[in-house]
Amino acid sequence: MARGKRGLLAVAVTVVCAVTVLAVPGTAFASAPAGPADPSPAPSASASATPAPTTAPVPVPDAELEKVRAQLDGLYHDAAVATDAYNAAEEKTRKQSVQLARLEKRTDTARKKLAELKDQAGAAARAQYRDSGMPPMARFLLSDNPEHFADGAGTLLNGARATKKLIAETDRVERELKRDTDDAEARWKKLERDRKDKAAAQKTIQAKIKDAEQLESRLEKKEKERLAELERQAARKAQTAWLETGVLKKQAEAAEAAPTSAEAASAGARAVAFATAQLGKPYVWGAEGPDSYDCSGLTSQAWADAGTPIPRTSQEQWKQLPHVDVTEMRPGDLVIYFADATHVGMYVGDGKIIHAPRPGRTVTIAGAGTMPILGVVRPDA
Predict the structure, then answer these.
(1) Hey, how many other C-beta atoms are within 10 angstroms of the C-beta on 227?
(2) Distance between CA atoms of 347 and 247, rounded to whole angstroms?
(3) Predicted structure pTM score
């Protein structure tokens, strides 16, 4: 019996110790990517039931925060890819809607024209019926008045020509109406596909942003501050490396060798002035102002304000606008980033850009070399 009591007491002590161990706070960011396994042995259960002293949360090492930063960069990049897809689909639906409106106007005009032609054909048929159904040629041949022969012949010829023209015009309008109707049907189907593409991209954007926000929400305030500092350090390091290539000196030499024309300088200055006026406004995917922008929404609106419409998305800006060497870029040129051309900023000189970075940020000035540069395009080349 004594042995049974001692066994029961040992089990109770073990349970109390286990609860005590679980109650000790862990790291502040439990779901950060796992680092190397801790080589220290696991603590053994104590025979004492005395509660363990409360300890401060274990800070997340910088190496772990770097992994978090890389993960966040990946999520926001994926959101940028989806944003470009959303913007492209939005642009297509806009164009399709305009074209459909034009087609509807044309088909409406064609239907009215066809109705008029059929009325004319009906009037001609009714006139023939009133003349006892006798064809015009028969009435002409049976006429007893030879003096009206020449006039009758001309009238008959003109009537035949008018009838032929009426039939040909009716046929042409019917073909045109059918073609426009078929075209409109095809465009409606295309519009629906573009709308579905836009909806799918929207879901992807929202999912990626939500994942990123959840990832950041698990960090303590001090860890968020350290994460922000790590981002600034990475940006400074990238910008310094870019400047050390001598790019600004090469730009100055290129500008001296080929001065910018007054007209081009004025257009670039207007685009830069517009972008500068947007500083501090929030990034919102798909936004083109005036209260918020995404990256290509900002650049496209800036150049539209300068009098030079350009493509809506960063990928189309890269595809369609003239390329210039990075050593020759001047204020107003657009710097395209990442291998898939999913980000864009406007060069303002002195190695800096204005851009709308990502969700949760505002339009800001940054170093042009803080992100991987794909190339530079010039809207007013």
Answers:
(1) 20
(2) 13
(3) 0.66
